[in-house]
Amino acid sequence: MTDDLAAQLRPATADDWPAFYRAMSAAFGETPSGPYLDSPPPVAEMDRSLALWDGDRVAVTAGIYSRSLSVPGAVVPCAGITWVTVSPTHRRRGILTEIMRRQLTELHEQQREPVAGLWAAEHPIYGRFGYAPATFRGNLTGRTERLRLRPDVDLGAGRVNIVPAELYRAAAPAVHEQVRRFVPGNLARDDRWWDRLLRDEKEDRDGATERQYLLHNEPDGTVSGYAAYRVKSSWTDRGEPDGTLTVEEVRGTSTSAYASLWKLLLSVDLIRTVRAPMLSPDDPIRQLVTDGRALHVSPLDALWVRLVDVDRALAARRYPAPIDLVIEVRDEFCPWNAGRWRVSGHPAGGYCGRTDLDPDLVLGIEALSAAYLGGVSLATLHAAGRVTEISPGAVTLAATAFSWPVTPWCPDEF
Ligand SMILES: CC(C)(COP(=O)(O)OP(=O)(O)OC[C@H]1O[C@@H](n2cnc3c(N)ncnc32)[C@H](O)[C@@H]1OP(=O)(O)O)[C@@H](O)C(=O)NCCC(=O)NCCS
User: Which of 15, 56, 153, 305 makes the best surface tag, with the fewest CB within 10 Å?
Assistant: First the structure.
């Protein structure tokens, strides 16, 4: 990219939003729609945006959301990279590369978020900048006639209620707040994010109903779970019902709440197929049904992660087994991360600092970022030639210490 073009990249303002949004929509092949045509939505942080103008048209867009990411044993600030588009008139001139460099350099120099995350429109775009898939979504799907809960599942004494959107909006956040900290990959949701999540525009429904809401109440009235879903009716040419129920989210603070919500979701009349595209490939529902093979799983990459600062990021998470190793990190794109780091950690804390000691492992920033949330094994990355073992046994030690009992998962696309 020429220095001239790079110098023209600057934050957009709220007044720029209509042109900014138009450019972004065009690059994603969409028509601008919804309530935020004229002014930015509440989740927007225009001061963290970047734009490049071509006359009175915006040709390049990018942004960052300030988010909180659950990581193994902790919650860390995370720069949620978003709005990344380069118009066909400006593509393949290094503008995305310049955006990536500018964002990561600023995060590092200002000591802001130690970790960045994004959802990739296409897999080959972001690896070169050090991002890697760190969570996966399961794309679960099954036929209802084969999906039954195990008879030994304790459904408790609570009850599932179909509720209006307002009641759900009032009650679900407290449940989410209780559970999200314990699931690496989950993101905190404040009111702005809940409002965004629960927007229900007709054009986004793909022929299905408006969103339906469930709450699970304990006998004393406490809300201990929630679920959101849509139904799309269909009939075979023999007149048989063949509807599809798409689960958007199910969360519970107890197994009985979770299972009770699923019991209802699996038993809605006229439904033959249940889909849950955003749930974890390791979702507990797979252990709750009698016929696990009837619930097909086809995982896809979800939240990608990039360590902005290796030391701050590795010190922020916890390690389920003791670790004290020297890793040598290769990171050409963010040279401040390159070199040898002593990583020590245990279930209650972590430390990472510069060292001159000989390395036990050598790996690239992509591999380290993939393993950060505990869902991609360093042993698998080693088997793929992306981690080099110098000290015998170091891969096994590091793979164990970097793992985590809860599979990372992110249901929040942004
Ligand atoms: C993806 C996009 C932002 C790339 O912008 P760009 O300015 O053309 O990217 P750059 O010129 O900086 O490309 C850097 C490198 O990445 C490669 N690259 C960029 N986009 C790619 C893609 N979609 N698939 C494969 N490689 C890609 C380039 O070929 C280049 O490789 P090279 O250095 O080996 O030549 C742009 O094509 C776009 O807006 N696409 C549509 C919207 C979109 O997908 N946005 C991403 C949202 S997550």
Answer: 56
